[in-house]
Design goal:
mainly alpha; extended
Amino acid sequence: MNEQKFPKGWDQERVRKLIAELDARSDEEWVAADEAAAADGGDQAVVTVPASLLPEIRRLLASHKTA
């Protein structure tokens, strides 16, 4: 079996807790979280695109360098 690699400060227990918390969310809680993130006013946007474009979009995002 392959050894799990976690980001600094994360371990298997922390991941399990996060997954359990996210799995316990209701649809209303997911919508509220999305709306709160959209209302944040930060420098991000939510855009609906055809699923067929996702591989190219992911490639572009992976190559993007932030300031």
